[in-house]
Structures are given as structure tokens and as C-alpha cells.
């Protein structure tokens, strides 16, 4: 049994509660660094003056805000550059767009081969090829059928596992 009086009563309760909240906010404003001017009006932060030139325009604030750009870094982007083996300080590898170069010990020339990043080793004879297929985690050299699994990669460190023997190779990025 819903009566019109009940609806009016509920409307009255809602209005009274809203009015009381508004009065409470006006009588007890939040203390957030605003200052009162001579009329008791809360105008602007204490560090600001009332000069027109000091009041920023909303449209300028919106236009000057830079929108953050989120860029997801791929394994290929992380891999590019020069790396030094953490144990054998004479061993360096360099990954460029298409080439992997390596030098170690007393060698005077870089060993250079084409490589690709893929979801598996390109050597079909590799029995470990079936174990894992992860996008962009395998470095395969086309000329030599050598293959490494990227165990871990960041801007500073690289850990590879040579698929032929399973040994772990750890590198730190170095500047050119």
C-alpha cells in the first residue's frame, strides 16, 4: 500500500538531508591552503594574489598537460645493442637489426651472422624445439643453426640458454 503521502515524506527527507549537507560544507569548509579575503570569501590558494594575470586559464592548463605515452618494449628492442659477458670480460656480442656479431679472447675480427627472433629454433633437427614455443624468445642464426633461448632480458641484463648444450650465458649491456 503505497500512498502519495509516503512519496512526499520521502522527498522531504531527501531534501532536508541534502540541505543539511550543503550548510555543513559552507559553515565548515575544508582546510586546503585557501585563504580568506576581507569579505570572508574563500578565493584562491594563499600563495596566489588576485591579479588577473596570475589566474591560469583552464584551456591553457589542458593544452599544456602532456599525455603519457605507454610504449611496450619488445624483446627485439631490448636485445639491440652491445653486451659483455659477466664472467669472460673479453666476450662481447652485438645485436643489430639483422646481424649478431660476437668477439672473444684475442680475436681481431667479429664473427657476424644473420639472426632472427622467433617462437622456436629454426633448426628442425633440434629436439628441444618442441619443448617451448614462446613468441620472440628464441634467437636463431641462419648460417650456423645455432639457437639460444632468452631466459631473461631487461635494459641492463641479458641471460641466454644455448639450446645445443643448455648452458646459461649472462651479459650486461655496455655502451658502444
Largest sheet: 8 strands, antiparallel, barrel
Strands, total number: 10
Enumerate the strands of the largest sheet in spatial order, edge to edge or round the barrel: 3-4-5-6-7-8-9-10
Distance from N terminus to C terminus (CA atoms, Å) equals: 84 Å
Percent helix: 10-25%
**CATH structural class of the domain at 75-174:** Mainly Beta
Q: Which topology of the domain at 75-174 does CATH recognise?
A: Lipocalin
Number of helices: 3
Stretches where pLDDT is under 50 for at least 5 consecutive residues are 32-39, 42-49
Q: Class by helix and strand content?
A: alpha+beta
Order of helices and strands: HEEHHEEEEEEEE
How would you describe this structure to a colleague?
There is one protein chain. The protein is of the alpha+beta class and 176 residues long. The chain has a domain at 75-174: Beta Barrel (Lipocalin). 20% of the residues lie in helices and 30% in strands. The strands form 2 sheets. The chain has an 8-stranded antiparallel barrel with strand order 3-4-5-6-7-8-9-10. It is elongated, with a radius of gyration of 33 Å. The N and C termini lie far apart (84 Å). Mean pLDDT is 75; it is low at 32-39 and 42-49.
Describe the secondary structure blueprint for this structure:
Layout (H helix, E strand, L loop, with lengths): L3 H24 L6 E3 L5 E4 L12 H7 L10 H5 L1 E5 L6 E4 L3 E5 L7 E8 L19 E4 L5 E7 L3 E6 L5 E7 L2
Antiparallel strand pairs: 1-2, 3-4, 3-10, 4-5, 5-6, 6-7, 7-8, 8-9, 9-10
